[in-house]
Automatic annotation (TrEMBL):
Its main location: membrane. SUPFAM superfamilies: CheY-like, Histidine-containing phosphotransfer domain, HPT domain. GO terms for cellular component: plasma membrane. Keywords: ATP-binding, Cell membrane, Membrane, Nucleotide-binding, Phosphoprotein, Transmembrane, Transmembrane helix, Two-component regulatory system. CDD domains: REC_hyHK_CKI1_RcsC-like (cd17546). It is found in: Cell membrane. SMART domains: REC (SM00448). This is Response regulator. It comes from the Bacteria.
Amino acid sequence: MGFPSSTPASPSPHRPLRVLVAEDEAVNRMTALALLRRAGHSVVTVEDGPSAVDAATGGEGGGFDVLLMDLGLPGFDGDEAVRRIRSHPNHNPRLRILMLTASATPDGLSRCQSCGADGVLTKPLQLEALEAALAGAPAVSDRPAPNGRPIDHAAIATMRGLLPADRVAALTAKTAVTLRTYHADLDSAWNEGDARQAGAMAHKIAGVSGQYGCVALRRAAQGLEAVLETQGLVGEATISARQSFDAAYGPALAYLDGVAAGG
């Protein structure tokens, strides 16, 4: 998905770019770092909103060609960081800012579109979409689901084509650990009646799982996030969304464990 902007497109993708990645989720940050470096780009990563603003406005406007900005960041969110960068006296007017989000809610996408960014990449971050965005493509969208199957094996196949097998296994193992942690946190929030925190954990699960091809879990987590935002923890829609999420979670973890073990 993209939208108009007065900011010029990035330079030709045929030369290495200097890319700033603002992403608080360690697994997603490591994946973006590996893909970008393998493509020959220079990469700097930060983990929160204030650090993103500092990096993008330091020196000669930070010296970056492209900024990949996660919507949900500690300190302040990515959309607020973009506004501060664009209004900063030392901002680089040629910096192309692309938002990253796993959100399926209208509010999340609206925030991406209204903050002054040049476009939005929906998670999971796809190699083809990333390359097009770095080349200045005006619109980027999700890759369609693989014939309704719960796992998109092409995601891991792409990673294996770019990274050593042991690196892919290590990243996938970290992803499985991260998802188990987020699932436990979602359960805790649910049991405590905290719909907002449960939705936040569903959002994180959607962002992490999709990167590794767990499309059924990603969509179930997005659905759960959306219904928690509008209806809270009560009602048939919430119960149904939670059941769909639980049904997708086990197979996704089993798949990731298998990939981590070399399968």
